[in-house]
Design a protein that fits this description.
Helix content: 55-70%
Number of domains: 1
Structural class: mainly alpha
Mean pLDDT: 87
Distance between the termini: 41 Å
Strand content: under 5%
Number of helices: 7
Number of strands: 0
Shape: globular
Low-confidence stretches: none
Largest sheet: none
């Protein structure tokens, strides 16, 4: 029997989410006033960071299985910031604290500064309606 390969692994999902977060940050930086799209962008960034945080254990499971503890711990430390920042962003969105949100967005931008997104990407606008979906959860 052959191996079963998961085409939608946690690593691929993390890469896609990271690229869409970078796109959302670029779009958020262009916003001049707080409207529906601004709320959607901020909510999408918070939800995407939570999804990345939840996928950390799945990513390091194979390394831990083989005894690569240092590599697994290094990876966890590299991405551990996503959970707390997502919580702070959710709280800032709920309180309409756009100054804190701007600071958090800058922090996320610094962490993801090495990620490049091509001009002709096919990611679309995944943040559309993210604020309403976030309020529902």
């Amino acid at each position: 029997m052959s191996r079963v390969i998961n085409p939608d692994s946690a690593g691929k999902q993390r890469t896609k989410l990271s690229k869409t977060i970078v796109l959302a940050l670029r779009q958020l930086a262009r916003q001049s006033e707080t409207g529906a799209e601004t709320r959607d962008l901020a909510a999408f960034i918070a939800v995407a960071l939570e999804a990345i945080f939840q996928g950390i254990d799945a990513s390091v499971a194979a390394w831990e299985k083989r005894g690569y503890w240092v590599k697994a711990d290094k990876f966890r430390m590299e991405w551990a910031w996503t959970g707390p920042v997502a919580e702070k962003m959710r709280a800032a969105i709920a309180a309409d604290d756009w100054a804190s949100l701007a600071m958090l967005s800058a922090q996320v931008g610094q962490k993801l500064s090495k990620i490049q997104v091509a001009d002709n990407h096919r990611l679309g606008k995944p943040w559309a309606g993210a604020y309403e979906r976030m309020k529902g959860t």
